[in-house]
Design brief:
Oligomer: single chain
Number of domains: 1
Distance between the termini: 59 Å
Number of helices: 4
Helix content: over 70%
Largest sheet: none
Strand content: under 5%
């Protein structure tokens, strides 16, 4: 099965660019994510981390 797919993919011209594009998108996404995590304000992180606890307290009341 894999041999059939590999032979079929090799016959398509210009297909070798797609793995490069997907790697680039993956890399850019995680670089932006790490940048956002390291530059996020600690007050915002505390507020967001307490959201599930606030919802539990409201449901119990």
């Amino acid at each position: 099965m894999l041999k059939y797919v590999k032979n079929h993919m090799e016959s398509i011209t210009g297909i070798e660019i797609y793995p490069m594009i997907s790697l680039l998108i993956f890399f850019i996404f995680f670089v932006v994510l790490f940048w956002w995590v390291f530059t996020a304000k600690s007050e915002y992180i505390k507020t967001v981390s307490n959201i599930p606890l606030e919802n539990q307290n409201q449901e119990q009341s």
